[in-house]
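Sharing a chain and its predicted structure for anyone who wants a worked example. Both blocks are below, sequence first, tokens second.
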Amino acid sequence: MIVTEWRTVDPRKAVDRYLREYPRRPKRIRAEYGINEDGRFEVHSRIYEKAHGKWRETAWGPFLGDLAAAFPELEPYMKWDMFTPDEIAGWAALEKFWTEYRAGGYPTDFQYQASLGALPDDVMPPRETPWPEVRAWLQERHPRLVAAFRRDMRELARAAGPGFRAGPGFEGPKAWYPGSALE
């Protein structure tokens, strides 16, 4: 995983509710990103805040809105958080999120799980579309998603350098770096 330098976050301008708590306390954020042991791309943050004169870690997680504000150079790759090229992740979750959306719920969980917006021509199916048709649409677009993911990961690996492939299990065929089998 690549670990970035610390950047200051203004709690009054934070996107995530957690970072807006205690707005008078200074906060720092650091991004951690790379391919995890399962072959998924991950973007996470570590949040530190200063209280009583000492910095201490107060949160860890995918605060993607605040990461994008603090690290605009990573924003184009955040759409791939938890994406793997090996499979369409979470069929059961996708079906559940689509069913909830059809019943009047919000589409955000489905959009995140399906990496909607990762392709320039991505348009979500209409709300009334039955699940079997949505599943076929997801299967049809998956090869294009994988191609776009690999292109973005090669670009990110070049910018990040050799540390991008660091971590358990990434020295083999799943290594994402220039010159790898996936180049």
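Comments welcome. Confidence is low (pLDDT under 50) at residues 166-183.
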